[in-house]
Design a protein that fits this description.
Blueprint: H1 42-71, H2 79-87, H3 93-127, H4 139-154, H5 159-181, H6 186-214, H7 216-226, H8 235-252, H9 256-263, H10 266-271, H11 276-298, H12 304-316, H13 320-345, H14 353-376
């Protein structure tokens, strides 16, 4: 039975005319008829309009949360004053707080959320596993080991200093995982990728634990980074990771049609003209850049890459042309909302964003596992 291509709109192009593809025309001498062009009906147009409206709503909610994030803190600034100093910085106390402390933190939250959400969507589509998380590639473990090494060996204790070590460790770990398990095609390759990531994460986690056990300085600095936080990050931190984020986003946004095709199966994807190995390499590079940069800047913030793509698929379906943009826009909503909630519930202190997202993501993970188990029974 041929696969149902209608579940994955845009999965591939129509079969070319035999003469155009180097083949021969039918024996009758008459040219083979071209497949009829697909015309979007009213229901399809309404569906697309609804999804576009959803993206606009997500943008509006994100703008609102950005404003609230800038206004809230140990000292609340009225919203009219926030708008005033945003458009007309005047060197006042409110202006300094907004531009030097809260705006960099908020923009970093948007960037980290977008990176983790998009990376999670690509990772789940690549492995065909809705429980996959960017940490599956060993990115978090590689970054953590590099940060501990930078602190213990090179004496680096500032975020702006070890962000490069964290990114390098994340990238090397992801490359090693891909080298060990990402070259095999089909379901076997997906399993090898997961196993390689889990094995490397366990090994690097053990090495990190050994270093922090015998080096109190490394442990004291590492424990503030590993919880996942947007606090005490300045504009320089965002500037250092911005180029990697931009490249990772651009690479990911070239993949929707190829991911749609490969979701139908390795053989079907190849028949539709998708270069499986190259597509997997591009996707892996994108995930590495996005996760490595986000983890280096803010520490390992868990569950964002797991929760957001799954929630998006419940709303827009499995078409990656919509899943990726929705994940890009809705993940910052989760990160900023968690950061704001952490500042509100523990005032005058705060809960780190990684702790709040764990409270949100853990029940969702349990729900996903129970749902998959119930579906198999």
């Amino acid at each position: 039975m041929p696969p149902d291509l209608s579940r994955y709109p845009g999965a591939g192009t129509a079969t070319a005319h035999p003469a155009e593809s180097g083949g021969t025309a039918p024996a009758t001498g008459a040219p083979a008829p071209r497949p009829p062009a697909t015309v979007a009906g009213p229901s399809s147009r309404r569906l697309s309009s609804g999804r576009i409206a959803g993206l606009l709503v997500a943008v509006a909610v994100l703008v609102l949360l950005v404003t609230v994030s800038v206004a809230l803190g140990s000292r609340t600034i009225a919203l009219p004053d926030v708008w005033r100093v945003l458009w007309h910085p005047d060197g006042s106390r409110d202006s300094i707080v907004v531009w030097q402390l809260r705006m960099p933190r908020t923009m970093l939250g948007v960037a980290v959320g977008a990176a983790l959400g998009l990376a999670g969507a690509v990772m789940q589509a690549l492995t065909n596993n809705p429980l996959a998380d960017p940490g599956l590639l060993g990115v978090n473990a590689g970054a953590a080991f590099a940060v501990v090494t930078a602190i213990a060996v090179f004496g680096v204790t500032q975020v702006t200093g070890y962000v490069w070590f964290a990114f390098l460790g994340a990238a090397l770990a992801a490359l090693l995982v891909f080298g060990l398990g990402g070259r095999t095609a089909g379901p076997a390759g997906q399993i090898r990728l997961v196993l390689a990531g889990a094995a490397l994460s366990a090994s690097l986690g053990a090495c990190t634990g050994i270093i922090t056990m015998f080096n109190s300085t490394a442990f004291d600095s590492y424990r503030f980074w590993v919880v996942g936080s947007l606090d005490s990050r300045d504009a320089q931190t965002l500037g250092r990771i911005a180029p990697f984020l931009v490249v990772g986003v651009l690479l990911a946004l070239t993949l929707p049609r190829q991911l749609n095709a490969m979701a139908l199966g390795e053989d079907v994807g190849r028949s539709l003209g998708v270069p499986a190995v190259r597509m997997r390499l591009v996707a892996f590079t994108s995930v590495t850049l996005l996760c490595g940069a986000a983890t280096a800047a803010a520490g390992p913030i868990g569950f964002v890459g797991l929760v957001i793509p799954h929630a998006v698929r419940l709303v827009v379906g499995v078409d990656q042309r919509w899943v990726l943009p929705y994940s890009l826009l809705t993940a910052p909503i989760l990160v900023l909302g968690s950061d704001i909630l952490g500042r509100v519930v523990a005032r005058p202190g705060e809960l780190e964003v990684g702790i709040v997202t764990a409270f949100v993501g853990a029940p969702v993970l349990l729900g996903l596992v129970v749902r998959r188990r119930a579906g198999r029974s």
